[in-house]
Specification:
By secondary structure, the protein is mainly α. The chain has 4 helices and 2 strands. Helix 1 packs parallel to helix 3 (50-62).
């Protein structure tokens, strides 16, 4: 197990992406995280699943943010066979 800030890291923490975030803050933003900031971020991340933690951290790095925030996941494509306009023009039900 990875050890951060004098405590054992829980199994449900995405340590790979947490390490990526810490490196990003230090190397790209020149704003290294304090032990307190790491502890607070760890507590925040534990509210979500490991895949959700990965998505949040990747999104924050891609957007060049200074912090990690939860945002709505991208919407999936509709499985509609017809467009709304085609649905509105459809009169097959009136026969």
């Amino acid at each position: 197990m990875l050890k951060i800030v004098d405590s054992v890291v829980p199994d449900n923490l995405n340590t790979e992406y947490l390490a990526e975030w810490i490196a990003y803050r230090e190397e790209d933003l020149s704003k290294p995280m304090t032990p307190r900031a790491i502890k607070m971020l760890t507590k925040k991340l534990l509210q979500w699943s490991i895949p959700e933690q990965e998505r949040m951290i990747c999104n924050a790095i891609e957007m060049n943010w200074k912090g990690v925030y939860w945002v709505d996941p991208p919407k999936q494509q509709s499985s509609r066979q017809k467009t709304i306009e085609e649905d509105l023009e459809d009169r097959s039900w009136s026969n």
